[in-house]
UniProtKB/TrEMBL annotation:
Transmembrane segments: 46-69
Keywords: Copper, Copper transport, Ion transport, Membrane, Transmembrane, Transmembrane helix, Transport
InterPro entries: Cop_transporter
Family: Belongs to the copper transporter (Ctr) (TC 1.A.56) family. SLC31A subfamily.
GO CC annotation, single: plasma membrane
Keyword hit for Transmembrane: yes
The protein's name: Copper transport protein
Entry keyword annotation includes Manganese: no
Subcellular location(s) per record: Membrane
Organism, as annotated: Quercus lobata
Gene Ontology MF terms: copper ion transmembrane transporter activity
Pfam families to which the protein is assigned, alphabetical: Ctr
Alphabetical list of PANTHER family matching this protein: COPPER TRANSPORT PROTEIN (PTHR12483:SF85), SOLUTE CARRIER FAMILY 31 COPPER TRANSPORTERS (PTHR12483)
Membrane-protein topology: Multi-pass membrane protein
């Protein structure tokens, strides 16, 4: 049975129209016409696309910064409070990681490069600070025994 042309009755769907709306880009592409995280965002305007690039960069950067925070030992004497703080930081880090992953799954090369750049800058700054931090000096005594001949 063929549907007559014209408006669709309420509650019915056109399979071709539904398939076109559900199609998603499955290979990398360039361009500002992307859907990132939410339907209709960044709404195909260049300014919103640049904002989306900056947002993904900041998320990736935050992941790297948050990766060193669990190593920071809490100053309180309550170990449960310290564990709770580390758990909250870890939860935010994982949430940001999932958001970056979902953004990259838009297959937009600009978003992919922004995510890589955020991880690059964040890792570089975090590791350069860690390497430049003074290390505690260890004093060890060593006794050398020389046998008599």
């Amino acid at each position: 049975m063929e549907m007559p042309p014209g408006p669709m009755p309420k509650g019915s769907t056109n399979s071709n129209n539904t398939m076109m709306n559900m199609m998603m880009q499955m290979s990398f592409y360039w361009g500002k016409d992307a859907t990132i995280l939410f339907h209709g965002w960044p709404d195909n305007r260049l300014g919103m696309y640049v904002l989306a690039l900056f947002f993904v960069f900041l998320l990736a950067f935050a992941i790297e910064v948050l990766s060193i925070l669990p190593d920071v030992k809490p100053t309180s004497t309550n170990p449960m409070l310290g564990t709770l703080i580390q758990t909250i930081i870890y939860t935010f880090r994982m949430g940001f990681a999932y958001l970056v992953m979902l953004s990259v799954m838009s297959f937009n090369l600009g978003i992919f490069i922004a995510a890589l750049a955020g991880h690059f800058v964040g890792f570089f700054l975090v590791k350069s600070r860690a390497l430049s931090a003074p290390k505690p000096t260890e004093t060890t005594s060593c006794t050398v025994v020389i046998p008599k001949v």
